[in-house]
Amino acid sequence: ILLSGGNFEWKRPEKFKDVAVDSPTKIKLLLKEKGIEKVDVEMTREPKYSVWRGCIVYGYAVPDTYKWTWERMEGWLILH
Asked: By residue range, what is the domain housing residue 56?
């Protein structure tokens, strides 16, 4: 599972160690609630910027003729 974005860029403040967790631990706990266990969760160094970097690569790599489909959940959606 790949996730990116600033919503995952947090660390647990030391003074809240009894009531809070860091973002990888939170993702692991959410997966466990869904019955998915024995997983390793890692965050990229800069999750806030990773989504934008991915968009730039996607924009260069995907041809204009690759149209959006809901089955693939990818492609270009022409709005005009």
From this structure: 6-61
